[in-house]
């Protein structure tokens, strides 16, 4: 019953198996999505297991949704393993939009701006020189030298 209620808020889509979800199209997915858009409407939902994907099949509807709901749609799905456990929540790519993201971005920009990057040139030149010297000493290990 709870699942039925939750699905009432989703756009229509192809019928889904109770365990595996909807059959996802293969290499010509765009053709299947166009067919589904004609059949179910410009906005459809597809379920694969517990993952629900909403597909917007028409440009006009996509633009309308982005104009009306842009701020609420700008975020990424939460990835606890990669975003919090493995990186300690410090990877800007995995941080959800908000105050924390803006602070991290500001801190990164302060050190990675074009003006600031000039200060890194001596370090980069030293590392480049060390790499070339290591390759000259041991050409067979060039891939290992480049990994540092």
Largest sheet: 2 strands, antiparallel
Number of strands: 2
Which sequence of SSEs, written as H and E, runs from N to C?
HHEEHHHHHH
What characteristic shape results from the CA principal axes?
elongated
Q: Which percent bin holds the helix content?
A: 40-55%
Strand content: 5-15%
Rg over C-alpha atoms, rounded to the nearest angstrom? 24 Å
Number of helices: 8
Q: Which strand order does the major sheet show? A: 1-2
- Give the class from helix and strand content and strand pairing: mainly alpha
Oligomer: single chain
Mean pLDDT: 81
Low-confidence stretches: 1-5
Q: What's the domain count?
A: 3
- What is the CA-CA span between the terminal residues? 55 Å
